[in-house]
Amino acid sequence: MFKKVLIANRGEIAVRIIRACREMGIETVAVCSEPDRNALHSMLADHTICIGPAQSSESYLNIGRIISATITSGADAIHPGFGFLSEDSKFAKICERCNIAFIGPTSDMIAASGNKAQAKKTMMDAGVPTIPGSAVAVNTVAEGLELADIATYPVMIKASLGGGGKGMRVARNREVFEQAFLTAQSEAKNAFGDDMMYIEHYVEHPKHIEVQILADKYGNVVHLGERDCSIQRNHQKLIEETPCASLSDELREKICDAAVRAAKAVNYENAGTVEFLLEPSGKFYFMEMNTRIQVEHPITEWVTGIDLIKEQIRIAAGEPLSFTQDDIRITGHSIEVRINAEDPEHKFRPCPGKIEMAYLPGGKGVRVDSAVYSGLEIPPYYDSMLAKLSVWAKDREECIKKARTALGEVIITGVTTNVDYQYGILSNPDFIEGKTDIDFIEKHSHK
Amino acid sequence: MELRYLFKKTQTDNVEPESKAASESPQTPQGLFQKCDSCGETIFAEELRQELFVCPTCGNYFRMFASTRIGNIIDRGTFEEWDNDIPEKNPLQTPGYEAKIRRLQDKTELDEAIVTGRGLINGHPSCIGVMDCRFMMASMGSIVGEKITRMFERATEEGLPVIIFTASGGARMQEGIVSLMQMAKTSAAIKRHSDKGLLYITVLTDPTTGGVTASFAMLGDIILAEPGALIGFAGPRVIEQTIGQKLPEGFQRSEFLLEHGFVDAIVARKEMKDYLGNILKLHENSGEFVFDGADTKEQKKRKNTLTAWDKVMISRGKDRPVAEDYIVKLFPDFVEFHGDRYVKDDQAIMGGIATFAGRSVTVIAESKGHDTKQNVERNFGMPSPDGYRKALRLMKQAEKFGRPVICFIDTPGAYCGLEAEERGQGEAIAKNLYELSSLKVPVLSVIISEAGSGGALALGVSDKVLMLENAIYAILSPEGYASILWKDSKRAPEAASEMKLTAEDMLSLGIVEKVIAEPDDLSAANLSEVTEVLASELASFISGNLDFNGDALCEERYKRYRKYGV
User: Fold this and answer.
1) Nearest CB to A98: which of B10, B27, B47?
2) Full domain range(s) for residue A438
3) A227 part of the active site
4) Is the pLDDT assigned to residue A447 strictly greater than 70?
5) A154, A184, A201 — which closes off a domain?
6) Smallest Cα–Cα separation from A84: which of A170, A9, A28, A185?
């Protein structure tokens, strides 16, 4: 087992990792930027090394400085957390070269997952459902129609060089395809000077379902159930829960099986998450594989009783999984609410500043992962997440009530937060009834 | 008390760590990282290699090993090294020199400071020499001079182009006067190579100084540079000590040389191979003449009711296409070359090479801008002497390589200013008329908008002159004419008609061979209507001159201008 782990991250995830290490008797080294000298992770770790100025490229993203901090401090492993360098295959590769254990998958796996086209092909070959559509771009209506038939309607027509919604059109059926194709194509030509178009199946009002995977270095792969992360704003998750309220046991098994197949297809190791889009029809499609711990991992920990961070460390240290798929039991229901320093009244702009007072709730089935304390200055340079509140109860109904109760106790003054906004979602009748999909926030935002 | 002292820290079980072999404990292996001298950033060596030794953080160019450079430029498996076994000499019997050479040979696995040989670049054969700074700062000893000279002699014999990547501190102190003579020896070999009509390209890399700059580095037909390279004769430290002043930022860097007219183009390392391959291809000129455009030479005559003054205004119009627009449409593979090799790069003249219907041509244009910013950079299309000298340099280059010259004329006139006079505006224009009259390759000029006086004629002594319907050609502006003759520049519209400056007038005076019809309101949107006709004209001009006789061309051109006037 490792003697000393360096945590190449900040905020609540760094705190979370320090706690896991401490329980395991592993010394911790925190790294921090100059404005983060008083951040909780800097205070909590056994050793702290300041690695540079505020700008991430000069500190938390600076590979050279992190590697030299690791070697100087005598750490034998790095936990990258999420964000920053966690999915940087170059960073993982350098760790490998320097005999530093990277707590995560190998650099090759990260690189393979990062290459979307290659990943999609690997998944197709492994029999994991992917969004049907063109691997090639076309520029004539006739070719487009042919591909659309294969992709099945509705289809999304998008510019191969596209971005920002330009050169994108949905065609609901064969009759309107030509019109939509030509409009999208002429937009693409004007915006990007290229008229090559991709055609793929348009997944409408899906849920975002992801499956937690654990895999050791010896080919053992298990899943820890799914998480429903459909409550999103601009692709930012706000509230996550497990299990998914509207998944039949049969479909759950299919999705989780697919996730295990996906992990096996790339010989995955360590913790990972396979993301799917689930159509109302029950069809689901592979989106991508996240090769790191996720923000929302606590809800999986609640319902399985497994400490994912500790498992990550054990796997990286070469230990085999101590349980099999049959040992894993999903019990009760869990919800996580992200608490951010942002202003919902003003387009969710980040609100850094000094925390005057922070009171965070507790009690049975309530967990808070946070890095704030009264008097802490929240710097403007990084992510605006302050804390994650996660709760557990025996069923969804009770769980929502518990989440609301606990959230109602959260008091953070000095900076504007999204607490009331999140409280509103937990009280929304559609949410309570489980009528959620990735368009939920957009649909309810006018209220 | 700070929180950090209040938190209880990790309780370890205090078992001594299993002693790992040193090779297994965390450490950075030798060479895993490299430091950038410019930004100080630590760079993953593997990434640096992928980036061809350009710092991914700040874009700084690292110096390159000759072998890496050759691997980067020459097609895999085609490099054949020459003359790597010339025995070293110590001409001045400098103590310790031989031992130093041997130490460096062991350390660098090089025989001397330059590697020479031949190979293919994207399939195009060329000789190549690459200097390597690790070897005594790539100073030019007698072996360096000898290898270069032998390469040029062999290239001359075999009819091959030569490319040299220069990098050098200059002459080699240990070889004294013998080293100095290498400058003369290499230059002489290059002259013989050039006299055979063969191409020589230099690529100046960091640092190119001293006797190397003052000989083979600056003798390329085409001189390229890597970004940010130090290039100069005297080193910056020597200059500072001599003049007792601090040198300005960017002095003697590639960009400085480009601005001052000594470099044709700065090429990024990642694009260098393709750039060189393309230049070689353009100089092989072995392509068949294939023109697949329509024959649109015969245009329908329409009635043009515009007055001369209307045409003056149209020719100066803000939205009227400029030379660059014609070049983009007619010569999509145009490669621009900069500089007059004396003072500066005048952007009022745009010149370079391209292919048309499979044949190489030199294109030179008086270049106005599309907007105010561009117009300021291009001095509103009014060339300075440096511009005319750049044009002449490119014309002579075309003559050397036997390519037709296509000129686009669009200028209010040669620039009228202090510096222009100081550097000899009159002399520059005169020299162009003089040299163009006997240039031994076909020359076609196209007047696209304004052709103002001598400044226009400097690109217009040609075998054939075409003129757009609403373009004008005159000895001076109508405003100037009215002001001189009638002391009233407001009478310019009247002057315009009196001056006989329209295309129709030029045709009837025999000044131009043909008028090209224009659509109403010629602009970028309908420019193709004109360029299609021009393409057809170009095709017939080039195909009519596929086997041109230089002397006959000059004779005809002489007669063409001999007939004007009395």
Assistant:
1) B27
2) 207-444
3) no
4) no
5) A201
6) A9
Collect all residues of chain B within an 8 Å Cβ-Cβ radius of residue A46: 9-10
Confidence (pTM): 0.79
Span B499-531, pLDDT tens digits:
999 999 999 999 999 999 998 889 888 998 899
Percent of chain A with pLDDT over 90: 86
Neighbours of B422 (CB within 10 A): 9
- Provide residues of B within 8 Å CB-CB of chain A: 2-4, 7, 9-13, 17, 23-29, 32-33, 41-44, 46-47
Residues B308 and B252 in one domain: no
- Chain B positions touching A93 (Cβ under 8 A) are 44, 46
Average pLDDT, chain A: 94
Strand order across the beta sheet in which A47-52 lies: A47-52, A27-33, A4-7, A77-79, A101-102
B114 pLDDT above the threshold of 90: yes
Phi/psi of residue B458, each to 5°? -60, -15
pLDDT of residue B21: 65
Q: What proportions of chain A, in percent to the nearest 5, are helix, strand and coil? A: 35, 30, 35
**A68 and A171 part of one domain:** no
Give B359's strand partners.
B356
Question: Which chain B residue shows the shortest CA-CA distance from A28?
Answer: B10
Which residue is catalytic, options A16, A252, A292, A367? A292
Domain of residue B336, residue span: 302-557
CB contact under 8 A, B26 and A76: yes
Indicate whether A311 and A348 sit together in one domain.
yes
Same domain, yes or no: B406 and B518: yes
B-chain residues near A74 (CB < 8 A): 26
**Residue A113 maps to a domain:** no
Q: What is the pLDDT of residue B100?
A: 94
Q: What is the pLDDT of residues B237-255, one digit of tens each?
A: 889 999 999 999 999 999 9
Q: Are residues A355 and A377 in the same domain?
A: yes
Q: Cβ A68–B28 below 8 Å, yes or no?
A: yes
Peptide bond into B207 cis (omega under 30): yes
For residues B217 and B204, the answer to whether their CB atoms sit within 8 Å is yes
Give the model's confidence band at B16: pLDDT under 50 very low, under 70 low, under 90 confident, else very high.
low
Residues B199 and B52 in one domain: no
Do B341 and B317 lie in a common domain? yes
Flag whether pLDDT at A297 surpasses 90: yes
Q: Is B29 in contact with A27 (Cβ distance < 8 A)? A: no
Mean pLDDT of A345-352: 92
- B24: in domain: no
How much is the pLDDT for B25?
85
Q: How far is B496 from chain A (nearest CA, A)?
A: 42
Residue B397 CB contacts under 8 Å (≥ 6 apart), including other chains = B221, B362
Domain count of chain B? 3
Q: Under 8 Å CB-to-CB from B520, ≥6 apart: which residues?
A: none
Alpha helix (H) residue ranges in B74-137: 97-108
Mean per-residue pLDDT, B102-113:
94
Q: Is the pLDDT of residue B155 over 60?
A: yes
Answer whether A99 sits within 8 Å of B25, measured CB to CB. yes
Q: Does residue A35 share a domain with residue A89?
A: yes
Q: Mark out chain A residues that contact chain B at CB-CB < 8 A.
A: 3, 21-22, 25-28, 38, 40, 42-44, 46, 48, 63-65, 67-68, 70-71, 74-76, 90, 93-94, 97-100, 373
The DSSP symbol for A313 reads H
In a shared domain, residues B51 and B86? no
Minimum CA–CA partner of B12 in chain A: A25
Least CB–CB distance from B33: residue in A26, A27, A64: A64
Average pLDDT, integer, range B524-544: 91
Query: pLDDT digits over A252-283, tens only?
Result: 999 999 999 999 999 999 999 999 999 999 99
User: Is the ipTM above a cut-off of 0.85?
Assistant: no
Report how far apart the first and last C-alpha atoms of chain A are (Å, whole number). Answer: 53
A162: left (phi over 0), alpha (psi -120 to 50) or beta: beta
What's the confidence (pLDDT) of residue B14?
Answer: 59
pLDDT at B29: 86
- Among A22, A32, A103, pick the best mutation site for testing chain B contact (most B Cβ within 10 A): A22
